[in-house]
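User: Hey, my collaborator sent me this sequence without any context and asked if I could get a structure. I don't really work with proteins. Can you help?
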Amino acid sequence: QVGVYDMGLYQNRIVVKVGTSTLTNERGKSDLRSFDRLACVLSDIQNMGGEVILVSSGAIAIGTNKLKMGERPATMRKKQAAAAVGQCEMMFLYDKFFSDYDKTIAQILLNAEDVEQEEKKENLTNTFDTLLEMGVIPVVNENDSVSYTEIESEDRLFGDNDMLSAVAAVLCRAKRLIILSDINGLYDADPRFCPHASLINRIEKIDETVYTLAGGAGSKRGTGGMKTKLRAAEMAIAQGIDTIITNGKAPEALYEIVKGNSVGTLFAGKTV
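Assistant: No problem. I've predicted the 3D structure and written it out in structure-token form, which is a compact way to encode the shape of the chain:
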């Protein structure tokens, strides 16, 4: 496709990050409708000529549910066991729903170190490129059963895979990174406590003022608050990648985003 690769980025390539809060319902069970709608929209976008990479959290929550633990485990070993079971179940669900739309998915499990070594990084890029050329939709998660960065990191640098999605977007030279959250975007005040808070549609630069608006952690089922999303956005926009934060309960918004319409909060990629 002529003109697809421009300014060092693939103009038709998007990375979509989906959090635990989107994939589970209020009772902590798998939200099957959410899986289905997400698979439908992403398959549709691929049918329209887009290349799609999905970064998905949710393994620990889904594993906790599958193992009938009642509540999210507290110890590292139990969390990693839940992640190992949950990753299986999560990929089964994705495979089932994407198959309904005639799509093939692939699983890629990463650790933070994987992108720090030049050789591994190159291999990963080649794997992503090859899968996308073959029309496959890669589903990426952190390798939770052997890694502890997402589960336990002090300030959750890879918290709920927000940073991982930015790393994947940079690695794949995607034009857009879309982070689906349990909030409509970044507000000028905390919408949970301030009824007059209004959504900020576009941000050119992420500075201390913007971080101050981010506040604390996110929902009780996920681990990534707005702060980790801003860190991820900061990493992506530095490479020229437009980053959008919007609500995961309305995946149909992805159609508008791909068309370039305003949805959620857009962090404009710097001109590289």
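In plain terms: The chain has ten helices and nine strands. You can pass these tokens on to your collaborator as they are.
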